[in-house]
User: What shape does this take?
Amino acid sequence: MNKITSISSLEHDFLVNVFDKTKDIKSNWTNLEQIGLGKTICLIFWEPSTRTKLSFEHAAKKLGFTVLDFSPDQSSIMKGESLEDTLKTLVALKVDGFVIRHPEDQVSKKIANLLPDNVFYINAGDGNHAHPTQAMLDIFTMGEIENDLTKLKITILGDVNHSRVIPSQLALLNKLSCHDVSFMGPKSMISEKFRPLIEDSSSNCLTDRNILFVLRIQKERFKENDAVDEIDFVKKFQVNQEFLDRTGFKGHIMHPGPMNIGAEITTDVANSKNSVILSQVENGLYLRAALLSLIS
Assistant: This one.
């Protein structure tokens, strides 16, 4: 297993190994084995990224890899070079593995098929399809909160329809037998396949939930007929102190980033003692280092 395109393609035992390796790397970060020495990894991001890109770069360098940061807008892609020819060129330049983010849905499957068997690949997000490493780091963080994931009660709030994180996260939770997941927000953001749905932040509606997973409104992925009343969304669903008091939520708050402070969440809540948002970021570093260690 050296090509990670989606959670659904991964075996349960492999996922357990990733989490075990992540724990090991987290406790031994200052003294990691240099498994990447003599190998080159190329990061290709067609879309902006802070957390994913920098954590992969930092993890790869910590493991001893040579890292190439490929910028599509500064390459021959701008002259009409195809994705296939770009990958062939980089493989010819002795690149051993790739981390790629691309705006096209499910392009990860095409990329995996284009690369030779001995070249590793990690999907860092492809359109609305998948973001497997984000899902892994999220569930790893949840596991630090509750060791028995089957006991977790999770509510996902916000723009589920345009999130590539949520399909990956739901697939992983299902593989780990965590099934108590509900959704909160306006119907315009949450399609019929995501149920049960809480359409209003009524009194004490979240008292029994352990995790509130907050999503931003992803306008960059809106289709022609997509629309949302942002003023109404903020009024009803912004995660602020009044929202927490009203809904009775006392669990942990998560967010995959980037946050739009003042829209789906406020600064005081994002920085509160119940927020594990920065723990997600930190764990992303360890998890991506673990994944690179296992598949390279």
